[in-house]
Amino acid sequence: MLRNVLIAEDHECANISVQKTLRDLGIENTDYVYYCDDALKRIAKSQEAEPYDLLITDLYFDEDENPQIIKGGMELIEEARKIQPRLKVLVFSAENKAGIVEKLYNELNVDGYVCKGRRDAQELRIALDTITKNRRHFPVQLRQAIKQKNTYDFSDFDITIISLLSNGMLQKDIPTYLQQNQIRPSGLSSVEKRLNRMKEVLEFTKNEQLVAFCKDNGII
Asked: The whole model's pTM is what?
């Protein structure tokens, strides 16, 4: 059962929306802050009485006239877990890159993730219900994106080629760059084969689609 919840969200409208969702679920003991530093102080203070059951945090916080030591949600999660290792964490953010969300689960061991957008209040309710049952909430659409990303194991050579394309280099000019930087293989046929293989596995027809996919999923 979730009784005490701390919300770290710097946008007032989103903050109010999360509070309302919690109240609708019968969770009345909620605190909210607009800064990560304040969130960490609240978590530390709560250890003296009744610790929080759940931290709901955004990933990105706008900078203003109040300088902060902790500037983002990822760092906040890491520091909060040092104080309270078993604290449950739900990330509520507009970030939708599968690579970053995958890191949240695999490296930071978050209990749930909800992407801000259409029907996010409904998704938030589902996530909270799942976490209450001591399970992790993982959105279906992001699970599918990560599954797709993992169907191909990108090598350093692949990432170099895609990064060069992303920076505007023409495919025909890539071999020259590879030769100048002593990267092997460096022939045009090798570059073409790798690009064709990636597009085939990921079911793309154009280099632009491959580059966009790698950007969206944090591969480059």
From this structure: 0.69
Strands (E), 43-94: 54-57, 88-93
Give pairs for 47-51: CB < 8 Å, separation 24+.
Answer: 47/83, 47/84, 50/3, 50/4, 51/4, 51/84, 51/87
Residue 95 · residue 60 · CB < 8 Å:
yes
State the DSSP H helix or E strand holding residue 178, giving kind and residue range, or none if neither. Answer: helix 174-180
Alpha-helical segments (H) within 3-139: 12-24, 36-46, 73-83, 98-106, 120-132
Q: Which of 76, 79, 77, 73 is nearest to 94 (CA)?
A: 73
Which residues lie closer than 8 Å to 186 by C-beta, 6 or more apart? 175, 178, 179
**Burial group, residue 140, by CB count within 10 angstroms (0-12, 13-18, 19+):** exposed
Q: Are 149 and 198 in contact (CB under 8 A)?
A: no
What pLDDT, in 10s, does the model give residues 97-135? 777 888 898 899 999 999 888 888 889 999 999 999 899
